[in-house]
From TrEMBL:
The lineage of its organism: Bacteria, Bacillati, Actinomycetota, Actinomycetes, Propionibacteriales. This is Methionyl-tRNA formyltransferase. It catalyses: L-methionyl-tRNA(fMet) + (6R)-10-formyltetrahydrofolate = N-formyl-L-methionyl-tRNA(fMet) + (6S)-5,6,7,8-tetrahydrofolate + H(+). HAMAP family: Formyl_trans (MF_00182). InterPro entries: Fmt, Formyl_trans_C, Formyl_transf_N, Formyl_transf_N_sf, Formyl_transferase-like_C_sf, Met-tRNA-FMT_C, Met-tRNA-FMT_N. Attaches a formyl group to the free amino group of methionyl-tRNA(fMet). The formyl group appears to play a dual role in the initiator identity of N-formylmethionyl-tRNA by promoting its recognition by IF2 and preventing the misappropriation of this tRNA by the elongation apparatus. It comes from the Bacteria. It is an enzyme of class 2 (transferase). Belongs to the Fmt family.
Length: 304
């Protein structure tokens, strides 16, 4: 089949590579326009745009998918199906109607749980026992289309960023298998209507840590917000970002937010239990091991 691939960030690259290596023909790639990046804020193509150029593919960068020129080009390309991974823009009905087999989205959750922009982060923050990917046909309602494939695995103890890259690799294989199945005539099944949860983007204010919560919940919060937007708290009136932590089997019980530093470890109390801080970032500093930060003498006071 002829297909168009739509995606933008690095997490979409495994899927583009998998489809480019398949028996199907990727006739064009759709991605977000070049955006400012780096210290000089120079306009830079997206990771998907750069990889597509390496592969010699036509690249479309519409500022908006409602643009007549974009829709005209999509119509003339006449793809049989379109694949989407983290494209970052809504697709209007006239564009959705162009490929006869629709637009197939690889979504990083076990639908219908966690529909929306931040499914992996929300799953980690909620302490879900499983994580996974879903391939479904896009409809106008958010992440509500009929399902082709759902794959799950036990939730590991990892940051949301690490999990996303893990799912990007396994999901790429799932997406390629889904396109094969569509070519063979497979039909999707409706999503369940029960168990729907939403996964909106996490705001900076929402990322603030509440140390009165149980230690397991605080750990999940920190891992789920890492690396973006980064969980944070305040120490002596200054913001401290927390990127990694784990549950500690400590013989002492510091109060919620109270720091306890040993020669090799940094602990903090929670509402129930104790955490070991592993990676932090102080204002104006780089990310570093929590014990290195503590050795600078900064780890005194209470995290709030």
């Amino acid at each position: 089949m002829k297909l168009v691939f739509a995606g933008t960030p690095e997490v979409a690259l495994p899927s583009l590579d998998a489809l480019a290596a398949s028996e199907h023909e990727v006739i064009a790639v759709v991605t977000r326009p070049d955006a400012p990046a780096g210290r000089g804020r120079r306009l830079t193509p997206s990771p998907v745009a750069l990889r597509a150029a390496e592969l010699g593919m036509e690249v479309l960068k519409p500022a908006h998918t409602r643009e007549p020129d974009f829709q005209s080009r999509m119509t003339s390309l006449a793809p049989d199906v379109c694949a989407v991974v983290a494209y970052g823009a809504l697709l209007p009905s006239p564009v959705l109607a162009i490929p006869p087999h629709g637009w197939i989205n690889l979504h990083f959750s076990l639908l219908p749980r966690w529909r929306g922009a931040a499914p992996v982060q929300r799953a980690v923050m909620a302490g879900d026992p499983k994580i996974g990917t879903s391939c479904f046909r896009i409809v106008r309602e958010l992440d509500a289309g009929d399902l082709y494939r759902v794959s799950s695995r036990p939730m590991p103890e990892a940051t949301a960023g690490e999990l996303l890259m893990l799912l990007a690799e396994s999901g790429a294989r799932q997406l390629a298998e889904t396109i094969d199945a569509i070519a063979a005539g497979e039909q999707p099944v409706p999503q369940e209507t029960a168990g729907v949860t939403l996964a909106p983007k996490i705001t900076v204010e929402e990322a603030r840590v509440d140390f009165t919560r149980p230690a397991a919940e605080v750990r999940n919060h920190i891992l789920g917000c890492s690396p973006d937007p980064g969980a944070w708290c305040e120490l002596n009136g200054k913001r401290l970002k927390l990127y990694r932590a784990r549950l500690a089997d400590a013989q002492f019980t510091p109060a919620p937010g109270e720091l306890h530093v040993t020669k090799r470890q940094v602990f903090v109390g929670a509402g129930e239990g104790v955490l070991e801080l592993l990676e932090v970032q102080a204002p104006g500093k780089r990310r570093m091991a929590a014990i290195d930060w503590a050795r600078s003498g900064a780890a005194s006071g209470r995290l709030v």
